[in-house]
Design goal:
- This protein is mainly beta.
- The protein has a single domain, classed as Galactose-binding domain-like (Jelly Rolls), CATH 2.60.120.260.
- The strands form 2 sheets. Strands 1, 2, 4, 7 and 9 form a 5-stranded antiparallel sheet that branches.
- Strand 5 and strand 6 form a beta hairpin.
- The radius of gyration is 14 Å and the shape is globular.
- It comes from Malassezia cuniculi.
- This is Galactose-binding domain-like protein.
- InterPro entries: Galactose-bd-like_sf (IPR008979).
């Protein structure tokens, strides 16, 4: 199940991409993608972030947040600076695993590019 499909920011085709200019490559500079879920998902069901970035234009960090009673960061993954498809496993803290989320968001922080550009061909949260 693809919980967070790329449809909100991307068209699902690996022939096209979504680009953002953060302006600064620092990890503290970020862009947020948010998806409201059709039905709540238990956090323990979230398994991976799937992404394909433009080599040289990858985010440094992807924080995964969930809306339970409030927004909470459940984990972070660190994609390689590569244009290869990556499946990054999520490590959900035991204290949060049984909670349900009605929305999720991915915060892309920093860039491997000196000008803060990020290029994404595919981005999804898999359960």
């Amino acid at each position: 199940m693809n919980v967070l499909a790329s449809a909100t920011a991307l068209d699902g085709s690996l022939e096209t991409c979504w680009t953002v200019e953060l302006g600064n490559p620092a990890v503290s500079t970020q862009v947020t993608l948010t998806a409201t879920l059709d039905e709540a998902v238990r956090l323990c069901e979230l398994k991976n972030v799937r992404c394909t970035c433009g080599g040289g234009f990858s985010p440094v960090r992807i924080a995964v947040d969930a809306l339970t009673s409030d927004w909470v960061e459940i984990c972070a993954v660190f994609p390689a600076d590569s244009n290869m498809a990556q499946t990054l496993p999520l490590t959900i803290p035991d204290a949060l695993a049984s909670q349900e989320a009605s929305a999720v968001r991915l915060r892309l922080g920093g860039s491997t590019d000196a000008f803060g550009r990020v290029i994404i061909y595919e981005l999804g949260l898999l359960a």
